[in-house]
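Dear support,

I submitted the protein below through the web form. The confirmation email said the job was done, but the results page showed an empty box. After a refresh the structure appeared. I'm attaching both so you can tell me whether what I see now is the final result or a partial one.
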Amino acid sequence: MALKYGIVGLPNVGKSTLFNALSNGKALASNFPFCTIEPNIGIVSVPDERLQTLQELIQPKKVIPTLLEFVDIAGLVKGASQGEGLGNKFLSHIREVDAIVHVVRCFSDDQVIHVAGQVDPVFDKEIIDHELQLKDLETIEKRIAKADKTAKAGNKEAQQELILLKKLEAWLQEGRNLRNLELDPAQADLVKTWQLLTMKPVVYAANVDEATLKSRTNPHVARLQEVIQKEKADLILISANLEAELAELAPDEKILLLREYGLGVSGLDQLIQVSYRNLNLITYFTAGPEEVRAWTIQQGTKAPQAAGIIHSDFERGFIKAEVIKLADYQQYKSELACREAGKIKMEGKDYVVEDGDIMHFRFNV
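What the results page shows now:
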């Protein structure tokens, strides 16, 4: 299943234009609020040069990259947590994603309407933050009411949960996002199951004009950067219009256009790199004459669970994993040569998969 990234922001900040450029989805992009009602979904393959390396070495029948799913969620407005602008429906869509791409307008253009009447990225960010925090408060207050009854009956687990819930409530009431609250590992694991909106990893995408891509800053970007420095979040500069142009070009033409702006990679590549880092994701490969395929897993995943990403039978009947390092495959050119050189390691259930591992799983069910 592809990982889901929800693209959020106020109306008319460039979300749908960016979505169209980043993915194969085609959202309606227009100059008025609530252009997007139902979330549009687009699929994008994750670029990985290692796949090309393995393709050249193995010459498989097909190559299958990892996929990411972008969800273009309708523009939120002030009062969304109380249902303004179909807000409750939109907020429920955010709950279903793995991470958030928060698009913030950092360009001036009199031809593009701004819902607040002026470009102010900090104001825009705070509106979205406030609405997500209010929704989380609503969720937590319901849990507090439930836990309180059980705790009063002497349930020790409920008593500990109540302490944690009160801590989260106080943090949100101060206008802060839960992703910035320090929790011990057990608390963090429990809170993740509650699908709280402000716990989700976030990448701020400053939608800028093309001139700013060259200078790397403008007053709007500088203000936004200053505000998010205290958060567990990254900021990338991206021009939705330029990304739309890049999406229509051949690979060699893309490289030339990126060079014009002094960019090494596209906004999509930046977004993927940052998102993988934020979510602690790595990639392993399966490789053979039929197909070479990339698989995305959490860093720290052990071999049986990595096998389970392919099929639950692989995890349930796991016996061992044969592991080849990519550097060895590149040196010896084939699986057979790696085997003859003793470069295939047999790993058991406790093996922690590393980024770039080429794996073959042995199982019995």
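Response: this is the final, complete result; the empty box was a page-load delay. Confidence is low (pLDDT under 50) at residues 25-37, 83-87.
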